[in-house]
Each structure stands twice: as structure tokens, then as C-alpha cells.
Model the fold of this input.
Amino acid sequence: MLEDLDLLKAEQMLSYGRSIDLGLSGESRRLTRHDHLGRGILPEQFFVDEQHRLLVALSGIRAYLYDPKAQERLQKRIGWQRKRRKQK
Done:
């Protein structure tokens, strides 16, 4: 396994977990859990959908959630910040 895509970490394991059915956006989706365990890291859990898209990543007190509208929201926020700077 690699840390930050450049440091090889020994004694790491990525294992297949169980599948769960979860209601997301008004739809029932089957998510499959994968666990990353190993020496010198916090355990991580990854949940992927039937199309193998990463939807949730958990590690320690952090959670990362897939948001299909994130790019659109980011562009709006950048535009808003640029307008605000021009007004100053």
C-alpha cells in the first residue's frame, strides 16, 4: 500500500468487508465495505457502490462523503469570492 501515493508502507492489508443496504437520496443502494488495516496507521473503512465508486471513507474522527454537486458548489463559491474581492 502507498501513503500519499509515494511512500510504500509495509505490513498493510486491504480486506473485503460485508455489504449493507442503505437509503441514499431516496434510493436504496448496496454499499460494500473495505477495511484498510496495518502497522502505524489508523484503521480506515471505505464504502463503494455497485459501480465501484467510492462514496464514503472513514478514518479516526474524519469522514469523507461523495457529493456529486461539489464541483458546481465550488465554482459558485469561487465566483462569489472573486466578486467580493473586486468590491473591496
User: Anything to note?
Assistant: The mean pLDDT is 85.
